[in-house]
Amino acid sequence: MAPQPDGKRPPVMADVARLAGVSHQTVSRVLNDHPNVRAHTRDRVLAAIRELAYRPNAAARTLVTRRTHTLGVISVDTMLYGPTSMLYGFERAAHDAYFVSIASLPALDRRSMLGAVDRFVGQGVEGIIVIATHDSGVAALAHVPPGVPIVALGCGTHASISSVAVDNEEGAASATRYLLGLGHKTVHHIAGPASNLDAKERVAGWRKALRAAGAPEPAVLAGDWSAASGYELGGQLRQPVTAVLCGNDTMALGVLRALAERGLRVPDDVSVVGFDDIPEASYYTPPLTTVRQDFGEVGKQALNVLVERMTDGVAAGPKVRVSPELVTRQSAAAPRG
Amino acid sequence: MAPQPDGKRPPVMADVARLAGVSHQTVSRVLNDHPNVRAHTRDRVLAAIRELAYRPNAAARTLVTRRTHTLGVISVDTMLYGPTSMLYGFERAAHDAYFVSIASLPALDRRSMLGAVDRFVGQGVEGIIVIATHDSGVAALAHVPPGVPIVALGCGTHASISSVAVDNEEGAASATRYLLGLGHKTVHHIAGPASNLDAKERVAGWRKALRAAGAPEPAVLAGDWSAASGYELGGQLRQPVTAVLCGNDTMALGVLRALAERGLRVPDDVSVVGFDDIPEASYYTPPLTTVRQDFGEVGKQALNVLVERMTDGVAAGPKVRVSPELVTRQSAAAPRG
DNA sequence: AGCCCGGATGTGAACGCTAACGTCAGCCCC
DNA sequence: GGGGCTGACGTTAGCGTTCACATCCGGGCT
Asked: Peptide bond preceding A83: is omega within 30 degrees of 0, i.e. cis?
């Protein structure tokens, strides 16, 4: 497809046909596994294909079949564990049947989101995955012209868009129940950004578990996923806080550091639980109890839902949730008292 | 490009031409910014395009121009900071002029590498970026059929392939010089995998700085980039080790933890320096002195080199190095004695 | 034997675009 | 005033596939 610098063009179907002594249509049939081709003929064609190192021209095929076999992924340009894992998870799932084109945006505002969608449509993608974690991003999706199947990944509920995500609510609730079960009177929560849908769901799950247990409901402290914000918010924690659920592992790292600086010991004085189970989590000081998410599964489900929407037209699809799992390590224990 | 479920096909150039009262060729000229179109005519065409919401068919255009405007990135399926940053950095750089298609491999063995290249060639990409960090991956590149420009990213030197990478040798050397300058008799090194080219270069830089200073050269401890390996290797460190240079920040985290468990204090007893400057590095206990890499710049340079190779044919391109920068925090200080 | 049917192949026409011409004004200039 | 030039178009011919249809041939049936 790249311009040939050596002057001679790559072989086309007609060349193969000539060499094999058949018509181009027979070559096409062989290529597309049609029945009604004699084994002998097929072999001759295959031999010719190999001899010429022939490769079908994707553009020509696309022109007539109207299928590009390409899916687009819009992702925010972030090193965050979740989005990155989902990108790879999705690519792995789609790899067999589709090409995956990416667009990484510096921010998920409406303008750049629509721009990215438009670019993909121009490219001819058959469906789009949006790894949107903020309200603004998902809100922008409402404005995309219909006709292109879109599935949101890793973000919470929204009316008109299909989505696949980890069940944040259940994850946060189970972590909270676990801490309560250890004997803590209540659990504090250092959440992600207020505009972040994952963060919201985790807050909801935490609150629900608290309420169900009749425990006091402390005010939410909202960070921005970064270790920096965890550090700052962790520094504001005062007695009698004995248990903290963090919105992600990275913020938990900041909290750990803030507590250490103030001479508070984990888990003796304060129990800390994270969310994500990033690979480093078991090497924090102390190893972090956290909620593990299966992003490979998220990617697989996302492909399923997207393909479903692609074939069924654009009917609003389901909202799939994949269940997280609590991984207990040393950063959470029964309160000292 | 997706099959239209509503039955009616999207408008084509001829539709626009009819509405504007011109020939399809004139529409083409307007679309491609050809001169020799009267302003009045151009406006009429543009109005028709807008009215019909016409979009040029990318496949048809590709068929005749033989250009796909697509670049492929082969990346190993890893959450490592470096590869991921380079992927995004490259996409950002290429976004204006190209589509970026990705293939994430579970491993960079020769078979899967060749498979990925082949897949991309079939798709018609104009050039390929390989984020290869291991010997095996780069070695496999030697076997790809010529004709497709390939640039390796983030990996060391190899004869026949252009590459863009951070200057690992200089980074490791400067970190080593810094520790030596603080008064340490020598610097130990916990390296990445022996087969990893970045790791090798860092070892080389470390050794060179040691030699230049006439310092003793301890044996290299080789990990695998993970916090786990850092933890294990860190546990093997014995007196009189006073300074450790780690191959990346994540391993440094493991080292930090291992030292803490043995009651050794950082930086009082042992100085630790990382490599990468991941966002969390400043929230480790203590905040990590490390070598920062500008992956955005790497992405930009990679695009330059790749485009150069695409236009110049396939002549072996240059090996570009971008300079890293030492960021000093609290994990390294003068030795106690 | 005549007929029909279906398997195996070839032929022509799209698909939607750009490149290479052809055409036809209008203009300049000797 | 006619030849040549240039700007502003239109016409035709591909690009390399697949699809719809035509063709051919052998065999089973009546």
From this structure: no
Closest-approach residue (CA) in chain B for A82: B79
Are B200 and A252 spatial neighbours (Cβ–Cβ below 8 Å)? no
Q: Which of B84, B95, B104 minimises the CB distance to A92?
A: B104
* Residues counted in chain B: 337
Q: What was the pLDDT predicted at A313?
A: 67
Q: Which of B261, B215, B223 is nearest to B242 (CA)?
A: B215
Mean pLDDT of A193-200: 88
Query: What percentage of chain A exceeds 90 in pLDDT?
Result: 72
Which secondary-structure segment (H or E) carries B8? none
Q: Determine the 3-state secondary structure of B62 from DSSP.
A: helix
d(CA A167, CA A277): 15
- pLDDT higher at A258 or A336: A258
What are the start-end ranges of the H helices in chain A? 13-20, 24-31, 39-52, 58-65, 81-94, 110-123, 135-141, 168-182, 197-213, 227-236, 249-261, 295-311
Structural contact between residues B255 and B275, judged by C-beta atoms closer than 8 angstroms: no
Under 8 Å between Cβ of A160 and A140:
no
CB atoms within 10 A of CB A104: 22
Strand order in the sheet with B162-166: A319-322, A162-166, A150-153, A127-131, A70-76, A99-105, B99-105, B70-76, B127-131, B150-153, B162-166, B319-322
Q: Which two tokens stand for residue B240?
A: 């009189």
B310 CA to D11 C1' in angstroms comes to: 35
Report pLDDT digits (tens) over B232-286: 999 999 878 999 999 999 999 999 999 999 999 999 999 999 999 998 899 998 9
**Measured torsion, CA atoms of residues A156, A248, A77, B80, in degrees rounded to the nearest 10:** -130
Please state, in angstroms and as integers, the Cα–Cα distance from residue B163 to each residue in B113, B305, B320, following that order.
Answer: 17, 8, 6
**B7 exposed, middle or buried (CB, 10 Å; 0-12, 13-18, 19+)?**
exposed
Residues 6 or more apart whose CB falls under 8 angstroms from that of B288 comprise B249, B252, B253, B256, B272, B273, B274, B281, B282, B329, B331
Residue to mutate among B280, B308, B310, B314, with most A CBs inside 10 A, is B280
Q: How far is residue B305's CA from residue B316's CA, in Å, rounded to a whole number?
A: 10
Q: Give the integer Cα–Cα distance in Å for B157 and B201.
A: 9
Confirm whether any atom of chain D, the nucleic acid strand, is less than 7 Å from CB of A14: yes
Phi, psi of A195 (to 5 degrees): -85, -5
Please state whether strand C lies within 7 Å of residue A214 at its CB atom.
no
Classified as helix, coil or strand, A167 is coil
For residue range A228-242, list pLDDT tens digits in order: 899 999 999 987 899
Residue of A57, A112, A73 whose CA lies nearest to B73: A73
Residues of chain B under the 70 pLDDT cut: 1-7, 155-160, 313-317, 337
Whether the pLDDT of residue A255 is over 70: the answer is yes
The pTM of this model reads 0.88
My answer on whether omega of the bond before B240 falls inside 30° of 0, hence cis, is: yes
Distances (CA, A) of B322 to B12, B13, B70, B94, B224: 46, 46, 25, 18, 24
Distance in Å, alpha carbon of A236 to nearest chain B alpha carbon: 16
The 3-state DSSP class for residue A137 equals: helix
How far is A25 from A34, CA to CA, in rounded Å?
11
Q: Which of residues 315-334 of A touch B (CB under 8 A)?
A: none
Q: What are phi and psi of B63, to 5 degrees?
A: -55, -40
Largest separation between any pair of C-alpha atoms in chain A: 89
